[in-house]
Amino acid sequence: MTTFLAGGTGTPKLLDGLDADGSVAPSDVTVVGNTGDDVELGGHLVCPDVDTVLFHGGDVLDRDRWWGVAGDTTGTHDELHRLAAAAGLDDGPRYLPDDAQTRGRTIARWRRFSGVAEFMEIGDRDRAVHLTRTSLIDEGHSLTAVTRILAEAFGLDVDLVPMSDDPVATIVHTAEGPMHFQEYWVDRRAEPAVEDVEFRGADAATPTPSVRDALTDPVVVGPSNPVTSIGPILALPGVEAALAETPVVVVSPFVGREVFSGPAAELMEGVGLDPSTAGVAEAYPFADAFVLDDADETALDRPVVRTDTRLDGPDDARRVLDAVRDALDRVATGGWR
Ligand code: GDP
Fold first, then answer.
1. Average pLDDT of span 221-237
2. Percent of the chain surpassing pLDDT 90
3. Total domains present in the chain
4. CATH of the domain at 169
5. Which domain, by its residues, includes 270?
């Protein structure tokens, strides 16, 4: 068995290469999804990183954006905006009042937004997932149980689990004040200067038994943003200690100092990490080996396997997974000496 720690773009792109006849078979994989990015929007719990893996596994993912359902309509979203505009209601992220942030469903703490003029685009089919998820939570299921039910509905071959059944909210502290990661990224496009990143609730949250179990297998940290995609998972008590005890291979989301996409560089600088492969290595002291791009000349203090790490479809992903497998095998057998 192999465990992948996943955000919503880089690691799902790597999962494209899972192949029953390849170096990693989907039936042997557990994916631990980040939930720090989750928000409650208009009363519905949206889990963007978990959903990308669900839609990817169900073969319905919009592969241009790496979020949402391909070809989805936005009838409800458009109508929410029309109504708000007609009523003179401001759009933009509309946080619920402070006292409402810790009321109601525990899982949604510190990231509750009004659905008025919905600031994140939620497609109609996408919304059906959030409605089902939230309703099942209200029926008494844990997020882990609900995720397994949804995985069944989408026909996933991998075991997909959220990192925790407790609330953890990624709050980006910026020069303009604190804001949830989705306000920072979706509404503000990573424009405010980052001063710090907080994983609210992480100290009191626990990784689930499924996650703890998955962390006894070899672990692949995919090419995800180390601060806001992997950071919340690492912030859970016991996770870094578990990773120190098991083989861990990291695929860099950078080529040297060049990031493939997204706000990883701004966020890394904000928390005092060098925005580069070297900074990624510093963020992961428990990592045993790294898969770096052929063009990445970073010298690391730990073993490296090089390949072309651009992930543009299943062939690329299989090649990178071959390198991951090679690195894991060499870690297991001490084959670097
Ligand atoms: P998020 O939730 O969308 O931020 O998703 P992730 O954190 O999982 O993924 C974002 C990271 O994926 C970014 O830091 C990118 O640099 C990285 N990434 C995107 N495309 C590629 C690619 O083709 N190859 C590699 N190695 N990394 C990529």
1. 98
2. 98
3. 1
4. 3.40.50.10680
5. 2-333
